[in-house]
TrEMBL record:
GO terms for biological process: protein insertion into ER membrane. One of its GO terms (cellular component) is TRC complex. Belongs to the GET4 family. Transmembrane segments: none annotated. This is Get4 protein. InterPro entries: GET4, TPR-like_helical_dom_sf. It holds the Pfam family GET4.
């Protein structure tokens, strides 16, 4: 850091120490604007990074979030991509230090993921490490005890979208939340919960994540079962049996398993209808085996309109 920048940060810290948070924030933005107009982007980035860190340490999270969004805007103007390791790591560090329930997280997610989509390899859904970051933070917020049911449902819905598009490390974060939900409702058919990540990852043809999801979930629930081949048979949980059989079929080559998929669908159709899973399963039949069963053009509620839900 140059002497000039160092002195600016020192003055900023002094204003913070005296409690002049708003003045400090606005002054830093004004100085950053000058650097941006002069196309001195490294200086502008450094100033925002240091300033946001100081604000976070002082629990001035709204002002810090404002500076982080400005930092992303500078990334875009400068032409930095998410493949720039230092740029991404600084962004992840700052966002990680915000509270999990910070109201700015949704705006930060939209801004940072949209920025990442400008990089090769991320154009469809954005950077998976950023998705993992936001999904992990939001699902932790959903796990807090002091929030009501409606808030929990809303937070989980957003977190789920991010975790589906995240990394391999996102799988246990996603599954653990569902396992705890299953344990809290022991009499319910937990197959309805396992179906969520299995279908979501299957939509993306991410069979590795499907397999890991099922393995983690089945290891974690404490329900009596009978081993039938590789399947754990649960007497009173038909959906849980169905999801396991579904995973078996999806792992095989389409020419040999299309009829097995159809038979599986026909056998469990009443159960799927009761569990509101007909449309997603019909769509998978079309996606994997080109089967026209039911209204297979409808993806159902789990992953329908994925990105529009994420970027509203």
């Amino acid at each position: 850091m140059s002497d000039k920048l160092s002195k600016t940060i020192q003055r900023f810290q002094s204003k913070i120490d005296s409690g002049s948070f708003y003045e400090a924030h606005q002054t830093l933005r004004t100085i950053t604007n000058r650097y941006v107009k002069a196309k001195q982007y490294p200086e502008a980035r450094d100033l925002l990074y240091q300033g946001a860190n100081i604000l976070i340490r002082n629990k001035e999270y709204a002002s810090a979030s404002d500076l982080i969004i400005y930092l992303i805007q500078i990334y875009e103007e400068e032409g930095l991509k998410v493949t720039d390791k230092d740029a991404k790591l600084k962004l992840i560090e700052l966002i990680s230090n915000l509270p999990n329930n910070d109201p700015s997280l949704n705006d930060l997610a939209k801004t940072s993921v949209t920025w990442s989509q400008k990089s090769e390899g991320c154009k469809n859904f954005g950077d998976n490490e950023l998705h993992h970051l936001f999904g992990s933070k939001l699902i932790q917020a959903a796990e807090e005890e002091n929030i009501d049911h409606d808030q929990k449902v809303k937070l989980f819905a957003i977190a789920e979208l991010h975790l589906v598009l995240g990394t391999f490390e996102s799988v246990p974060v996603y599954v653990n939340f569902l396992v705890e939900t299953a344990k809290a409702n022991p009499d319910a058919d937990s197959g309805a919960l396992l179906a969520r990540p299995v279908l979501n990852y299957a939509y993306l043809k991410n069979i590795k994540f499907v397999q890991e999801t099922q393995s983690l979930f089945l290891k974690s629930i404490n329900t009596e079962s009978e081993a039938i081949g590789d399947i754990k048979y649960f007497e009173n949980k038909p959906l849980l049996n169905f999801v396991q059989l579904l995973v078996e079929v999806l792992q095989k080559d389409p020419p040999t398993n299309s009829q097995k998929y159809r038979k599986l669908y026909d056998h469990y159709k009443p159960v799927l209808r009761d569990g509101e899973l007909l449309a997603p399963v019909e769509y998978l039949g079309k996606l994997y085996f080109n089967l026209n069963i039911g209204n297979s053009n409808n993806q159902g509620g789990l992953m329908a309109n994925l990105m529009s839900g994420l970027f509203k």
